[in-house]
Amino acid sequence: MDTxxxxxxxxxxxxxxxxxxxxxxxxxxxxYGFLGPNGSGKSTTMKMLLSLVQPSAGxxxxxxxxxxxxxxxxxxxxxxxxxxxxxxxxHLTGGExxxxxxxxxxxxxxxxxxAVQAVRLDKQLDKKVANYSLGMKQRLGIAMALARExxxxxxxxxxxxxxPAGIEEIRELLRRLASRxxxxxxxxxLLGEIDKAADHFGILAxxxxxxxxxxxxxxxxxxxxxxxDTPEPRQASAVLDGRLTTRVEGGSLRIGGIDNxxxxxxxxxxxxxxxxxxxxRREEQSLEDVFMTLTAGxxx
Amino acid sequence: MSAVTVGAxxxxxxNEFAKLRHLRVxxxxxxxVLGTVALTLLSTVTSAEFAxxxxxxxxxxxxxLSLAVPMVSxxxxxxxxxxxxxxxxxxxxxxxxxxxxxxxxxxxxAKLLTAGTVVVAATVVTHLAVWALGRLAGxxxxxxxxxWAGFAVTSLAVNLVVLALHLVLxxxxxxxxxxxxxxxxGTVVAVFGSGFPGWFAHATPWGYYSLVxxxxxxxxxxxxxxxxYLSVLVLVGLAAALFVLVTSRFDRQEARS
Lengths: 300, 257
Ligand SMILES: Nc1ncnc2c1ncn2[C@@H]1O[C@H](COP(=O)(O)OP(=O)(O)OP(=O)(O)O)[C@@H](O)[C@H]1O
Ligand SMILES: [Mg+2]
Prior knowledge:
Number of helices of chain A: 11
Structural class of chain A: alpha/beta
Strand order of the largest sheet of chain B: 1-2
Helix content of chain A: 25-40%
Number of strands of chain A: 15
CATH architecture of the largest domain in chain A: 3-Layer(aba) Sandwich
Order of helices and strands of chain B: HHHHHHHHHHEEH
Strand content of chain B: under 5%
Oligomer: heterodimer
Largest interface: A-B, 40 and 31 residues
Number of helices of chain B: 11
Largest sheet of chain A: 6 strands, mixed
Bound molecules: adenosine-5'-triphosphate, magnesium ion
Radius of gyration of chain A: 24 Å
Strand content of chain A: 25-35%
């Protein structure tokens, strides 16, 4: 079952299309990394999921029910969210801020305490939020979102301003929540920040979804280059000339965009033509490379 | 299914009172009481009527109040509204409210209820203080209950309209200097409104302060008049309708960040 599905979700401001035709599928109990460069429409999409921004076209379904102005109130009770800047009244303490959330949602003390402990804010509750560091504000915002024990958690760049240890803690928290069945959607413009936590990805660029699927599918979608090690790369290149685009790099030949079947045939041809080959490998690709290739190319 | 309730009205209002902590709204309300009472007393004890036991009536402090209320209220009401609304701009409160089902318009309506309660309390204290201090100062004449109550109610109504206007203004225009500047201009209109033709007094909410004044000097003579109940009634009706309209538009507006 998918917790979030959208059909042709679109938002335009004036003539500028900010989000275009998104068909999101966010499976239940996963951590869905929503990635894209600055201005690609991540926050706008999340606001539409929460019905804070009216879509120009398309539909949002959450937990099988439509999400719109009429259903928003009921739906929001089971969705925790943190959008853009972390919230919090500076003239009140962290504890007083949480009390406001507790009262407006009718939560009990234990729910609030669990949320506070999850983000390790217990020791900072008596401090005024105006004196919080950015990381502490971010934690408070996450605690506010968590306190209602949501089935769906939507976090917009929650690791902004956190130190490496803090980022690691949030990653662990997200994984822990997902393992309990909570669906987590988390955005970032930096892949590295959520890379290890997420098992599903949606990659956005200029308002369009370039990729959506599991980690394995993501790696598969971006086929890494094949490197053929040979003392005679020019000779080898000549053999393949006209059939494939190749590039000579030192003692190896680089071939892009070929699957395993084609690779096998290429090797057979080279050996048949008498080219000396001592190594065939796929280039190691980090998720970062995949992300950069996808977003920079603007296509899949 | 979770038992979480979202967007109920009661907690929203209680939360507005909770947000008043450390916000010094009580202090501003106290200043409003203090300023109004002090100005009233000052003008009372320095008047010729007060000096002569034969003319030492409640009309004297009522004339003082009719002047002190428009002098003190507009700016301090602007400050109260601004302090209560600016925290939402600063703390990303509009968005946070929206994500728990409390729309910006609902937040503004709750703020009017909360700030309105504070203003009502300040008004009661002000009038009781003037009465008690007047007694102490030796005003033994019978209290003109009808006239005084009429002034108290109509001037309170004008104060609440000005407060509502400022809540909307502070919510709409992020830069609070704008709202405070308008509060200052409002003071000028409120104090000098009676010196302008009648249509001018009706043109802005602040002009109505001159329409509710129940005592004042015409040349050398202290005269009393009933407040313009009908004008104030129309103002309140119009303002209430506009406030509901504008705040329900806030509800439909898209979330800002
Ligand atoms: N209210 C608005 N009116 C006009 N344009 C808007 C509005 N809100 C967002 N945009 C535009 O929509 C585009 C996407 O904005 P959005 O905030 O969704 O991007 P983002 O992916 O969250 O970026 P970032 O990583 O910087 O947070 C931007 O070009 C922005 O200027
Ligand atoms: Mg954003």
